[in-house]
Every structure is written in C-alpha cells, then in structure tokens.
Amino acid sequence: MTLDPEIIRLLAFLVGVIAFASFNAAYLVWLERKEAAHIQRRIGPKEVGPFGLLQPLVDGIKLMTKQLIVPAGVDPVLFKIAPILVMVPAIMSFVTIPFSETLVARNLDLGLLVISAFASVNFLGLLLGAWGSRNKYAVISAGRAFSQNVAYEIPMLVIVVTLVMVSGTMNLTEIVGLQMGGFWHWNILNLAASPLMPVAFLIFFVCMLAETNRAPFDMSEAESELVAGAFTEYSGMGFGVFFMGEYANIVIGACVATILFLGGWHSPFPDTIPFFGASSVIWFLLKMYFIIFTVIWIRWTFPRTTFYGLLNLSWKILIPISFVNLILTSAMLKVF
Amino acid sequence: MSTFAQSQANETFVLNLGPQHPATHGVLRVKLTMDGEYIVEAEPVLGYIHRMHEKMGENRTWAQFLPNTGRIDYLHALAYNHGYVSVVERAASIEVPERAEYLRVITAELNRVSSHLLWFGAFILDLGGFSPLLYAFDDREHILDLLESVTGSRLTYCYFRFGGVYNDIDDNFVTGTRAFIKRLRGRMPMYHNLVTKNIILMKRLQEVGPISAEMCRKYGATGPVCRGSGINFDVRKHEPYSVYPEFDFEVPVYEQGDSMARYMVRMDEMEQSLRIVEQALDKLPEGPVMAEKVPKILKPAKGDYYHAVETARGSFGVRVISDGSNTPYRLKLRSPTFSNLSLFGEACRGMLLPDVLALMGSLDLVIPEIDR
Q1: CA A296 to CA A301: how far, in whole Å?
Q2: Is the model's pLDDT at B1 over the cut of 70?
Q3: How much is the pLDDT for A20?
Q4: Which region, left, alpha or beta, applies to residue B279 given φ > 0 means left and ψ of -120 to 50 means alpha?
C-alpha cells in the first residue's frame, strides 16, 4: 500500500510547522535575553553551551520538571486548557503562511482571513486562563487584554482590508507575488495605491505590538502593576506554554508584516544583489527576524504606556488614520 | 478620566498590593479599595519590618546605636549617620575638626547621588522601562567603589564617629571622585535623552499624581516631594548644619506638583550634589579628621536635643533626651518617608492603578525607613 504523496507532504509540513514554532519560541527567548543584555551592557546567558545557545533547552527541561500547581479554588478545566488555547491558534496560523513560492503547507485562498481569525483566539485563551485562576490581578489583566484586543483589531483589520483592496486577493502567495521586483514594488512603498502606505505599515506594526502583548503595550502582563497579570497563578510548563505562545504570536505578526508590506520572499535588489537569488526563503526569514529584532529592541528601550493612553492612541489616532487610508486607497483605485 | 462616580462605591473590591509586590520595593502593603481600575481608597499598612530602632537606642550606649543609623535607610546611610552624630555632638558639646566636616559632606553628597541614581532606575522600572536601571547601577557602582575605599563598606555605612570620621581620604579617592563627577556629568544628557524626553514617560508623569503644597504642609512632607510641589525647603539651606553654608548650590524647586516635577527635582539634585562635592574637594582643609579628647564613655549633659539633616528623601530629624547616663533616655527618629507616604492615601484617590504606581514610585519609598 502506498501513501498519497499529498498526505506525506502534509505530515512533513505539520512536523515542520510545529518544529518551526517551537524552535522559534525557544530561541527567541535566547535572542531576547542576548539582545536585552547587549542593550543593557551585560553579557547575557553564556554558561550553557557556546554563547549560552543551550539555555532554552535547559530552561525547557527546568519548566517541564517543575510541578504544575493547580491552586485551590481555581477552575481546573479552564485553568489547564487556557495555555493550549494560546499555543494552538498560533501554530494553526503557520499553516497558511508562505515562506517562499512553494514552501507553504496549505495555500488557502482566504489565508489572510484565517490568520486574522486565529489572531483573536489566543486572547480568548488568555481571558479564560485569567478567569479560571480566580485571581484579582489576573482578572484585571484579562479586562485590559480584552479591551486592548477590541481596540487594536479594528485599525489592524482596516489596514488589512486596504491591502486586500490593493492586491485584489486574500491569498497570501498571490499578495507576495504582486510585490515582485525590487523594494520599490513592495506594498510599504506602493504610493500609487495610497500615499499613506508607510504610515499604514507603522499602524500595522503598532497594532501588532499591541496584539502580541509586547512592550510598550504589555498591559495584560505589566509586571510592576499586576505582578504577572493573567499568568500570576501559573507555574511550570503551564507558564512555559503561555510564554511560547506569546513568542509564536510575535513570529506570526512578523510573518504577516513581511508578507503584506515587505515583499515576502523577494529580494530588495533582485538585479544587483547576487546572493540568495531574486526570491528565496532566506529573504523572508531575514525580513521576519529583522522585524522581531525591532520588536525586542523597542521592548528594552521604552517604558510601558498606560492602559487608557493605549486606548486613546487606538481610538483617537490609529483608527481615524487607518480609515482615511482606506478611503484614500479606494478613491485612488477608482480614479486610476 | 475624571468621570469617576462616587455612587458606584458599593461595587468596589479590595486589592492587596503587597507586602510582596514588585512595585512596592519592599514589604509595604497597600490595601486598595478599587472600583474597576479606579482607586476609591488606599490605606498603607506599615510595620512589616519594624525593628524597634528607637527602643534599641534606649537600651544601648550612645556609640552602640551608631551602626543602627546606617540601617534605617540603607540607600542614604551616611546622612542618617550624620543626623545622629550631629545630635550627640550637640548634646556632648564635642567640637568637630573642619576637615572631618568636609569629609562628611563629600561622602554624604556622593551617597545622595547614589541614592538618587538607584531611585531613578527603580522608578523607570516601575514605569516598565527596564534598561535605565542597569545604566544607573553602572554609575552607582563607581560611587560604591569610592565610598568603599574610604569607609570600608558598600551599603550600610558607619563612617562618622562622634567628633569626626573614622578614616581620612587619600589621593586616589580625590582623583577617583573627580573622574566620577566628570563621568556622571557626561552621562546625564544621555539619561535625559533616553528617559526624560521620552514621549511615553512624559505622558505618564506630566499632570499625573498631583500633590499640592497645602497637602505637603498638612502631612509634613519634605524633600523632593515638597520641592516638587513648589515649597522651597531644604534643611541644608534653611537650617544649615555642618559646613553646607560654605558651598554655593541651588535648591531645585518645581511648581507643578506632579510626578514629573518630583522626577525633575531629583535629577537636578544630582547635579547640585556634584557641585557641592566639587567645591568641597577644592576647599578641603588640612588637619585632623577626629576631635581630640572624645571620652570613651559618653555621658552627655541632661537635656533635650534635636538635629535635622537633609537626606535624599527629605528632612530626617533625631531627637534625643539625655538623663546624663551612658544611654539615651529617649530617642525619637523622624523619618521623612513616613510623612511622605502619609499623603499617599489622599493623593491617589480617584486615580487609575498604573498612575498610582507611578505616584508611589515618585515618592521614593524606602520601607525600612518608614517602619524603623
């Protein structure tokens, strides 16, 4: 009996996606610690392996061997299911992300919609975990996370809709395909579609930070206010999975930003730069990690905003600008 | 933000901030009655590390209590040393050589800078910015090294003695201190560019946590808290002690009364302290660092004595009542942070949780000093 090659391909991708998500989640912690150390003139992890490269492994073993304490009074079902609800949608989103022209698990026509939908589910996980832990800090954190999510989904989705209008498709591979041929064809500089495109990228980036709960918008985790926010009661791998889910979400955010704005796997100078080729998965990863690097850089530079400052920023600045961009783009599309 | 309605007070809940909480910098517990994220009432609960310093003082000789003063406020220990030795010297009529007073001022002002640097880092940490803490600690480390070379310890100093100081400084200390002054002056613009001018920080501090001059007077707040509210009061200027009148320095005063004002007062104070140290090094007289003929067993004359000094957190006063024996009859410590914290409950009413923590950070609390 022979297996259908499609099934083998999907199995390979399943393993690959899970490996990629887990690897990134683990090694972004290492990157974050190293980068933070560099910014703060420290050395960072260095004892375990060369440059501390085995540190994530050791951390993982430590977290796994620790007891998963389920405190008395919590809702055990919600408490246990919440970390999984954060991690699973993140891994699911990877299924539709094209890393190169051919390297995509499922090239869905509605790929962008799938990712947008899954991006909200992880907030649900956070909410359930916080509610389930029956902790006042966690509940405050969940309230914050929820209104933050509502506030930032809107400008983010409006920007996404703008790009769908420009591209005329929700298929991520096709969106990247349209940006072929040098960085001036990328959507971030697609001034013919809308002169506000660079601003749109900035809004998308800010929303991505808020969506992934990263500083300066880490309201739901704000350690100096809410101890550890929604994760206060979590220990061991329960906490570890939350943490990994968070990093996986950053990777997703960076991937989507790369695909929508930065030309995906296309080289910025296809004719002049000889290495890596005009389109290669390496370009995709370079752009993606550059965005992640910037995200970490911002975290270790800026203080945290306040919760109401964050909502003001979204409702009073980002949403109006993104709508102006939407209207401008549709007008431009109609005229030209 | 001001649409907070008192009528919803029956929907409140109580949040225990501390005694173990990252923002309280020690074992302070604040019972917050909250309506959502609004504070209805805040009640600081004290006494978690009460060590009976005052009672201890009554049970040991005058000299034996001296090391305790360094443990009241471990961040500006030398000023607390200074307050206690000054009051005992006043009681026992001990003349202090001028060089010793200069050394006291130099080390105490360096210690003030180190205290402010630590506060700076910890305050930004409260606001969620992690990196400035390590930059500030880098600078603070230089001060600790300098002070270690002359006092022998790094944190809980006991450098001052009745009648002088225990150790003279050497040339290394002088050159090291001058080098440090140059270094910190070079780094202050970086701090201002990185932190003070940061838009997020400005939004978080400006017009947040207002404390009026009236409130400061009501609760007896001193130090940067009252100077940030427009009250020009600094013990070093207004009730001069030691050799402070001989130096030219300003008292930074800001009128706004918000967290930003208190932040700016402390940032400016660092520069003023550096100026004092610089002048003191220039004018440093020669001579002994210890008074002659200080009796081994001190028995000050009967009487009631008070002496206040300006610490990094405000006015620290020591009142001793001597009955002529070798132990104080009564010892009362007036610690500045206790008064500064007293206004917290009133100041944070109706504010939001993140702003309250910014306000608490701007008060520069050192918990062992509140509890004593």
Answers
A1: 9
A2: no
A3: 83
A4: alpha
Report the C-alpha gap between A303 and A148 in whole angstroms: 18
Q: What is the pLDDT of residues B222-272, one digit of tens each?
A: 989 989 888 888 888 888 888 888 888 889 999 888 889 999 999 999 999
Predicted pLDDT of residue B276:
92
Cα angle for residues A38, A43, A49 (degrees, 5° grid): 120
Tokens of B278: 């610089």
In chain A, which residues have pLDDT < 70?
Answer: 1-2, 193, 270, 273-279
CA–CA separation, A301 and A293 (whole Å):
12
Enumerate residues 6+ apart whose C-beta is below 8 A from A5. Answer: none
A214 CB within 8 Å of a chain B CB: no
More confident residue, A107 or B89: B89
Q: How confident is the model at residue B2 (pLDDT cuts 50, 70, 90)?
A: very low
Token output for B221: 């707040």
DSSP character at residue B305: E
Q: Shortest Cα distance from A5 to chain B (angstroms)?
A: 51
Residue A241 C-alpha from the chain's centroid: 15
Q: What Rg do the C-alpha atoms of chain B give, in angstroms?
A: 21
The residue in chain B having the minimum alpha-carbon distance to the alpha carbon of residue A308 is B1
Confirm whether A108 is domain-assigned: yes
Chain B interface test: which of A302, A307, A317 (most B C-beta within 10 Å): A302
Nearest by CB to B128, which of A40, A136, A303? A303
Q: Is the pTM of this model over 0.90?
A: no
Contacts of A307 (CB under 8 A, 6+ apart): A144, A148, A219, B37, B352, B354
Count of domains observed in chain A = 1
pLDDT at A276: 66
Q: Which residues of A touch B15 (CB under 8 A)?
A: 136-137, 140
Residues of A in contact with B352 (CB under 8 A): 306-308
In a domain, A92, yes or no: yes
Whether residue A57 lies inside any domain: the answer is: no
Listed by number, the residues of chain A in 97-116 with a beta carbon closer than 8 Å to a beta carbon of chain B are none
User: Which residue, B347, B344, B362, is CA-closest to B30?
Assistant: B344
Closest among A64, A124, A60 to A89, alpha carbons compared: A124
In this prediction, residues B100-129 reach a mean pLDDT of: 90
* CA B197/CA B201 separation, integer angstroms: 8
Give the residue among A254, A89, A260 at the shortest CA–CA distance from A161.
A260
Strand order in the sheet with B38-45: B13-17, B29-35, B38-45
Search chain B and give the residue with CA nearest A303: B129
Could you tell me the domains of chain B?
6-371 (1.10.645.10)
